[in-house]
Amino acid sequence: MTARHEQRGHILVITIDRPQKRNAINSEITEAIDRALNELDDNPELWAGVLTGTLTMFSAGTDMSSRDARVTERGGEYGLIRRQRTKPLIAAVEGNALGGGFEIALACDLIVASTTARFALPEVLRGVVATSGALFRAMRALPINVAREMLIAGTSLDAERAYQLGLVCQVTEPERACQAAIELAERICAASPHSVQQTLKAINAQLAHEDALGWEATRVAVEAILQSEDMQEGLAAFFEKRPPQWKGR
Questions:
Q1: Has 123 been annotated as catalytic?
Q2: Which one from 103, 216, 229, 233 is the annotated catalytic residue?
Q3: What is the separation, in whole angstroms, between the first and last Cα of the chain?
Q4: In a structure prediction context, what are the per-residue pLDDT tens digits for the chain, which is 249 residues long?
Q5: What structural domains does the chain harbor?
Q6: Left if phi > 0, otherwise alpha if psi is -120 to 50, otherwise beta: which for 73?
Q7: Which of 114, 189, 229, 231 gives 20 to 30 Å between its CA and that of 41?
Q8: Catalytic (active site) residue 39
Q9: What is the pTM of this model?
């Protein structure tokens, strides 16, 4: 399996289903997410979406063994990260949302998490940087010093602390995050879909300039990393399952 989607009334539920690979994102999952979100965007009978993983894992981010999680024309990275959306999308998180998996959640409008959820940005521990929005979305969703610690130390957040800090809007019992997210989507769908979409459009318009600055800063950081010896060492250490020997360049 890769990712599947199903319509429940006015709600589209998208499930990343690749448990044997910790729901890591490859080109197949990117394309499946992109197709599902195109359907959400284009179908006037769909008013909200829920994006979830399996009951034990949201997503470990890019599949490092294939590194082929390509971008799409409408969605950008993972078919989602740069998508211009006006319909609300809720992330329902069980288990780990790591690296790109956390960036997927940050690209959604709201996050519901079970008590098993854990959020982390471990890229610096691999000699790389977050490339899919976390360099600016994390500090928008969290206090700046918390976001900074996550980005430069790889520190993780559990669901309760994420709720206390405002990243997560609701914490549930294990295996209940998706149902709670659907219930939240149903409450949103009780409102005028036109009003909801215009509200999100207005919010996103105010963030557009910050996003442009964030993407440019990300581009500069990525270009520097691609030329570094630490990136090569970090990736080698990851696959060889050993501590990296950093050179600082």
A1: yes
A2: 103
A3: 40
A4: 689 999 999 999 999 999 999 999 999 999 999 999 999 999 999 999 999 999 999 999 999 877 666 799 999 999 999 999 999 999 999 999 999 999 999 999 999 999 999 999 999 999 999 999 999 999 999 999 999 999 999 999 999 999 999 999 999 999 999 999 999 999 999 999 999 999 999 999 999 999 999 999 999 999 999 989 999 999 899 889 999 999 999
A5: 3-175 (3.90.226.10)
A6: alpha
A7: 114
A8: no
A9: 0.96
The answer to whether the Cα torsion of 36, 42, 43, 46 is positive or negative is: positive
Active-site hit among 6, 31, 77, 123: 123
Alpha carbon 102 to chain centroid distance? 4
Six token digits for residue 95: 């288990």
**Cα 21 to Cα 186: distance, rounded to the nearest angstrom:** 31
Listed in sequence order, the DSSP H helices in the chain are 27-42, 100-107, 134-141, 144-153, 159-164, 177-189, 193-226, 229-240
